[in-house]
Design goal:
Four copies of one chain form a homotetramer. By secondary structure, chain A is of the alpha+beta class. Helix content of chain A is about 30%, strand content about 25%. The first copy, chain A, has 18 helices and 25 strands. Chains A, B, C, D: In the C-terminal section; belongs to the purine/pyrimidine phosphoribosyltransferase family.
Chain lengths: ~475, ~475, ~475, ~475
């Protein structure tokens, strides 16, 4: 049942999308629409909590797509009220199998002053230690999810209001996370002190919305107001938006990979459409690594904007040399051996008549394990291409992410074990070039490139420089890059 | 349950895809893959019949996508053997509701010399009269599908072999159709005398495949051999491919809309990729109807290749001004009122930051009812575009198709009631231009344009000139274009 | 999914129940209730056809229980109108698996004068020959069910009305069958010339009902009018009930096993409740085979009335020594090995404290394979019973039934290979006695016992004397009892 | 989905059955079988937890019957290991709807020394107060079930072992409850100090079982060892059974209604089969309230043993005047209006031919609201009975139960508002007699009848004398019987 893409093990995956609305009728329907627009951030499961004076808190959590679970009259009627929050998630480190529905957010807790629900995107890097201590003191965990720690910390807080308790709880957690939460009447949003994960504020009628990305504001017809600031906590009710800054201020470190791949091209980040940023990345790439060829083709769909940029910069015609099967939203259920072996052909097909005898530049967003790149190169050569040149819209991915992104173990990352030249030989292509880290910074708008002293973004997956110490992972034996390197 | 696209009522829809394989192990798995590649030709339901000496004929028919129904080990094990055929279909004029699974092809019939299964793409234009006569003589119909006539005609034939009976039956039916059929050991393919609907032959190992399009040969790794000829019947078994020509020869009239929209861009028609043909259409359109603007944007996804062609010809940059939600493969089930009203926003979002203050050329494949074009124009203007120019990659669709394509009644077709100028005003855009019929013929490779005496293609939906008389429809009151016109 | 009882392979099973209503609003709801009351006659699947002037014929066919399939508002709304017929069935000789839903009755056929639906209980003994001939002449069968022959014979008839065509068709079929059928306005009922299978007529308000048993008239509040006569065909419409007698008259041979086991105890057969007849059988058995003991216990639930009769006649107290688990309506789905081995304990438990040290008479309705009897005896002895005496409310079942009852092959019938004494030793009980054939005839009301020249009932399963030649079975190699025997 | 009986609102309902096994392979399969045998104690949902050294704790919780949920290889394989406990439950006061699966036991908690699962039958009468206090101190409840209090009390205990913590937790709860619990290696059973709810110990091979009733030991082939004593806590592991007595000793007060209705007739209570006790009740009733009549008929199935006893004592023949439809295990899903109105006829049918012109004694186990009794009386009279005499195998039910039994509010109980004579007139029967409270005590083996000073049983539903103060209910406004009464 849990859907998956055939290339999923060869992409980094954002693990969550969050959305909340207050001050509108049938808030849960807006949340369902918002989550639908954020489905690319998590396809395994989704959950919605709403509150209504007559029925109290209501919750529904389901495996599968928003469109299949949160659209019928029947289910939406069970989620009444003017305030609601929701969550979509990818598979996480939590338990799999029978009881995994317990790990689907939002989580709910009943406190002496009333209930609250909470959903988060990101990762708490000291969750294991917190969990051990809470159990020692008598907390009963209902899930294997790190996020449940926040609810238990709130339950043990002496704070008089739920926002007070949340502030107190959040000061004890480390990591990179954005949070949407709700009480009976208040919608709450938080970004971690570094602002690693995104969160934006929107206005809809007399109400307000919080969302991982602006594309989800568009779908409900909300106006994009501003990004929540790193370290900011907003508490929203009938009288408006109140800002708190519970954390010690730090320079921000937004995830640069949101620009490269995670966010939708129609979302706005830093005042510019993600699509344009990606087109810029393609232009930078064409400047850094030109090559003589007949066609620029994207690896669909994520390589498309950068391929267009590459074409515009280089003057080499853009063409769809690879066609994606529209009907692959979910992978084949329980596929037979034969179907599994079809691999990439189930999803992509080469435009043989177009490619034959051509020198082709293939633009992809990233190389993770390299398994897909290899298969695509073979398809292109089988179709009669004369040359294949790979251009990659991100630097080599050499380090795992511990901030809410699902990455393979370090030794599975192609760039962790090979140089660019070795990768080129490994993939057996005519050339392989990645955009430089500085080039990427330029493309996202940092004219001077990366500030090595104090990088403007979190780029740990490329640089190995982790802005928050991954305490739980170190405990499990992960080795950081030596400071000297 | 039956999936549908949100714009379905504003597109012409191919009603069927057919596929067959003989001479390979587990033929049904290849058929499942082939049908998956043909899913764009019919998403409502699918069926597969296979034959195996030990288990005889086996059949499975299901509503929904191939990937959800014909992929599990469990179901594929019920379809063993070295020969199989399959079918995907859109909703047709057959009965809806409880018993509609009976209308899902392939149909099976037991004759005195053994069984046969048959699946077809297209429409039998004298089905009503045939059905009446067959019932009069004692045939019991199990479905409301026109295709079942063929089985009953075969049952009543005195022919000694199944191919003989099929020849005899086909001579009695009128219309536009491609057929794949199977006996215990033979795979059979037929195209109607005009060759309106497509059918191609492929070679896979020691076996053979028949498919509506070449893209489905690619997915199973089969080599494209040739198109089945108009009026040709091929009978394939262990010893190879035998050709028969049961019909009186006529000049061919292939469906020109297959080039415009129905076929997948990676399929090959007339020796050239459909993608290139569509790029050509875009170039023709740029020549015929240039306009000064900042961006050329496709209406995703079907307008993409023509938009690229328009950009290449005009030099105006190509950009993805409209982003399609990847997770709309199926529409929302039982959507709530609020979700229904979201309409087009569930599927498409405008890249606001990109579009703002720009003069935009929107390239779409066709205008049917015009309802979607209107909504898209509004989205673009809401996002702040300065001008909107529509360019359409086909001539005005003014006549319904009776040859296996689902079209609205004539009075619902925008072009049936309005001139090009009226449509422009109706849509309230800065300009609206369709490719000319001659331009379309040139783009598909007819350098001299359309031969008015004897058109090279079936273009009835544009011209109102029907190459086969739609007998059943005339009986129901449809009025043909006066010959004088 | 198909439900089954754990002892099913050790009981004869009636294969069908039929029910029809005309002249009431929402006829299909009455049919659903009637079928629910007839569920004991067939638990695998059920179907209903109704007709309504606005919607024509409608049909629903489902695997599983009536209560689970034909009770929701949603499904019943698809079956509107003042006339409907229905059918419940056990698994038959038809195909199993994917397509078996095609074998679920009623069957529907469209004739030149309109449609008709038909359902039958029983068996057509010359179905194979008829099917071969019909296929030869061009009929296409949609199911593997014998009953479909009737529809095809009707389609080929030259009769002017549907009842005429049905008469003509029925004259060509041999066997034992009751039929309910419907046209747009007429309800039709037929019993075969020997009247082997039951069919009764009821009155409900201004309308009429036909049913396999009277208990299904009770549930809808209909009044029991009379049994349909052997060889009678009734045609019912607004103006009342017309009788036809299409067959050559013959002495009747009603199935005596309906009295013993098939019919529900609250049904009325021959003017007396089946419960009383079974109590009578118990009394006869007590007269024929008395034994000194402490308790008379039924094998639940079918042995209960005969056990009560045995107790009343013998004066030995009646007690429930074996308790049936109420929650075994369906068997365990895909049971694990361990659960399968639990066998009879899943369904029955001995009342240990009651049975201990007692001499127990166990009364059961029949012994088919003897497997269950053995297990029950072991349970009773394990619980500490001092003696176990079996008393069986039917004669030894030594011959298979070919008239609509599912029986094991002859060699699997315990009584086909062993004498009564051998069976007693085989089961290792202190005594085993069957009622005599004459005793059974007396219990059902034939004071003089069985008329050997011209038996009053069909008792082929006991006597091997088949009133209709089982042509299809002889063709498959079945050997009749030599006439001399 | 949640199954229910059509008379459910007219019966008291036991709310739970519990079962646990340790020391056998695949313990969960035995638990599934045990729960199947206890299904009459709760049909809404069931859950099983098992532990296995390799996989830790595993859990499955489902709505519906054991036979449908816990029998497939696939599900049972997810519950491996040599120790398991399970629970079946009726709907309780917990939340209904979307999230109710959270309320299905067993509950699981992770403590610093390892995990534990717990299931209970009965009711904690001070749960509301406990819950409030626990939330105040920071516990997060995952369900609305009272039983979860025990887990949280354990989590907060300072006890060094899980059994120590459970002892400490149980001393804080009030009410009537039996508990089965498990750690990784130990099976634990507890009965409340009064022993209101049942719990028995069984031996199976080298392992042990705990069960609500002995009938569930029979199904797995376990030997019945003894009842757990009131106030006893047993801790079972490889080395055997250890007894603890954590509570202050009190005279026992076992639920007398277990004898009347809740327990299965083949279970053993107090050394005698429940069936025999019920037969005794019938004999007492015949002595106390004789009447001249032709037949003694049970209201099936619960009135059967008492009817047999009445018949044996009175000499009036026993007969099945009312037949129960075997296929009513679950009620009709979403029944249509018409089906709902059929009411009792869906479940019961009168044996019309048997009843006509007879004077009938109907024996039922209890009268709760009286609605069913009325309908049955009408059916019997409609069938032509001359007289109807009701004999009830329990005293008038005039008070609700707060100890784990679902009873209507006091004002809905017929006996709370009417005298015996008034009820007789209300039901319009020829006579209506209940067994006396002393008669019932005699039938269950108390030769001297009830000891009014210190009753031997809990009979609060008849007497209004509650052995444990129902604190939560008093808080909600329930009024106890005045002491003076």
């Amino acid at each position: 049942m849990p859907p998956a893409h055939p290339f999923d093990d060869d992409k980094l995956r954002e693990e969550c999308g969050i959305f909340g609305v207050v001050g509108v009728q049938d808030a849960s329907t807006f949340v369902a629409l918002g989550l639908h627009a954020l489905q690319h951030r998590g396809q395994e499961a989704g959950g919605i909590v709403s509150h209504d004076p007559d029925h109290g808190f209501n919750q529904a959590r389901r495996f599968g797509y928003v469109r299949d679970n949160f659209t019928s009259q029947k289910i939406m009627e069970t989620l009444p009220g003017p305030i609601a929050i929701g969550h979509v998630r990818y598979s996480t480190s939590g338990s799999k199998g029978q009881t995994a529905i317990r790990d689907v957010q939002p989580f709910f807790g009943e406190f002496s002053m009333g209930g609250a629900a909470i959903a988060h995107n990101g990762n708490i890097t000291n969750a294991n230690a917190l969990r051990r201590e809470l159990i020692e003191r008598g907390s009963i965990f209902q899930s294997s999810s790190d996020s449940e720690c926040i609810i238990h910390l709130m339950a043990r807080s002496m704070g008089r209001s739920i926002p007070d308790r949340m502030e107190e709880a959040l000061r004890k957690v480390e990591g990179a996370f954005s949070v949407v939460a709700m009480t009976r009447t208040k919608l709450i949003g938080v970004r971690d002190p570094l602002g690693v994960r995104p969160l934006v504020l929107g206005k809809i009628g007399d109400g307000w919305a919080l969302s991982s990305e602006t594309c989800a504001l568009d779908i409900i017809g909300a106006e994009f107001v501003r990004e929540i600031r790193p370290g900011e906590m907003v508490v929203i009710n009938g009288s408006g938006v109140q800002s708190h800054f519970p954390f010690r201020p730090q320079p921000s470190r937004f995830c640069i990979f949101e620009h490269v791949y995670f966010s939708r091209p129609d979302s706005i980040l830093g005042g510019r459409s993600v699509y344009e940023t990606r087109e810029n990345i393609g232009r930078e790439l064409a400047k850094e690594s030109p090559v003589d060829a007949d066609l620029v083709c994207p690896v669909p769909d994520s390589g498309t904007p950068a391929a267009i940029g590459y074409s515009l910069q280089s003057g080499i015609p853009y063409a769809m040399g690879i066609i994606r099967n529209q009907y692959m939203g979910r992978t084949f259920i329980e596929p037979t051996e034969q179907i599994r072996n079809m691999g990439v052909r189930l999803k992509l097909n080469v435009n043989r008549a177009l490619i034959k005898d051509k020198r082709v530049i293939l633009v992809d967003d990233s190389v993770v394990r390299g398994t897909t790149s290899r298969k695509i190169k073979e398809m292109i050569l089988d179709a009669g291409a004369r040359e294949v040149h790979f251009r990659i819209a991100s630097p080599p991915t050499a380090w795992p992410c511990f901030y809410g992104v699902d990455t393979p173990q370090r030794e599975k990352l192609l760039a962790a074990t090979m140089s660019e030249d070795e990768m080129c030989r490994h993939l057996a292509v005519d050339s392989l070039k990645f955009i430089s880290l500085d080039g990427l910074y330029r493309a996202v708008g940092e004219a001077q490139g990366r500030n090595a002293e104090c990088p403007q973004y979190c780029d740990a997956c490329f640089s190995g420089e982790y802005p928050v110490e991954p305490a739980d992972m170190l405990e499990q034996g992960f080795e950081m890059k030596p400071a000297a390197e």
